[in-house]
Specification:
- The structure is a single chain.
- The chain is of the alpha/beta class.
- It has ten helices and 13 strands.
- The protein has two domains: about 130 residues, Response regulator (Rossmann fold); about 140 residues, Rossmann fold.
- Helices cover about 35% and strands about 25% of the residues.
- A seven-stranded mixed beta sheet has the order 7-6-8-9-10-12-13, sandwiched between helices. Strands 3-2-4-5 form a four-stranded parallel beta sheet, with helices on both faces.
- The longest helix is centred in the C-terminal third of the chain and has 16 residues.
- The protein is globular.
- About 40% of the residues are buried.
Amino acid sequence: MVALVLVGATQPAYAEGATEVVLVKRGGVTAYEEASEEFSESCRVHLRVVSFGDEGVTVESARLKPSQLVVTVGQEALDALAKGGLQIIPTLAFHTAGLIGPPAVPPADLLLRILLTARPGTREVVTVYGPRSEATFQAAHRAAERIGISLRGERVSSGPEAVRKLHALVEGPAHAIWLPGDTDVVTPQVFRYALQLQLERGLPLLAATRQQVHAGALLAVDFSPRSAGRAAAELANRILEGQPATERREVELHGGARISVNAQVARRLGINPEPLRRLGASVE
């Protein structure tokens, strides 16, 4: 279980003046709407929702005050407000810069173990990642070694570079491709190229979200947006209660990983989905 230790109080009381939480998200994204709805139902103070479109969002346009408690939904909202002097709970974001919030994806070793269930002979996995995912890659590399997989990755700075490096990586030994949750370099063009490699070379594509599985990747392991919304609300409630350091409580930051498998892709790759179903996978 991934948990956050927070200070607590026997008789919680809201901090003085803490009467509103602001939730900031790009409008029209289903996952963001689900997380927002769940947060709204679980948060104990007034919630003001700020939705934005292609114009983006700023501290000024969202009418945010210094030190205000803000929940950002998605990477775009977090990146726009991270330097605004706010108290932020990041949700559905891959790069959180040390901030505490519900994780967007489980540790990579879980995904790699599920890959071994799907295709036991897998030994070489290739990936590309950006500068903000360096720690994620190093942790995944160590985890892969422990389970007998060679994870070869290239750090890149842009989408076009990611395509070039991915092309070079699959020219060497490669049994699967992993695209981590890295919005800096895993652009739609990179994702489409990885789908092309999956189709042409029979390399299973491991993705970061269920939406990417629906778009053609073989499998992904992530957390439900609704569970992320509930966890973020519980975290916000604890912060707003102003609990002293005399007692510690744990806030569960997620409600369990979900495994998504693209049934059509599994058939094309000759993968039997039944072992994955026994793990609780949703084969769609």
